[in-house]
Amino acid sequence: MPLFNENVARMARENSDFRREVLTTDHCQVVLLCLQPGEETGEETHWASDQLYVTVEGIGAAVVGAELSPMHRNSVVAVPGGTTCNLRNIGREPLRLYHICAPPEMEPGTVEPRREMAAGVA
Asked: Is residue 79 helix, strand or coil?
């Protein structure tokens, strides 16, 4: 694997896609997310992997299991495998974050410009 040494917070600030995979190794994955005002990821359960969501810009709310947690710049939301999660943008500006998933779940190179194009979303 080639060296990956990038400013992932800058990458997240510049990302306007709903989801964009930027790094996949054998053991982890980094995905950029951008939620528009009022948008949410939709309820998801990642059965086989743990998730870390790091907020770069914006204001959001995470529902992890039955708990509601605020999201703001530099906050980290940890979601253990098998736990239901939904992220919402509750602010007036885009909510930009990056997501670390271990082990990887998405295909390398995945880009989902809008939520409607995301895998599993009708």
From this structure: strand
Q: Which of 7-21, 56-70, 108-122 is predicted least confidently?
A: 108-122
Q: Encode 6-39 in three state secondary structure.
A: CCHHHHHHHCCCCEEEEEECCCCEEEEEEECCCC
pLDDT confidence bin for 121, thresholds 50/70/90: very low
- Please give the pLDDT value at position 1: 60
Structural contact between residues 41 and 87, judged by C-beta atoms closer than 8 angstroms: yes
Residue 17 gets the label, from left (phi > 0), alpha (psi -120 to 50) or beta, of beta
Angstrom distances, CA of residue 71 to CA of 59, 89, 106: 6, 9, 23
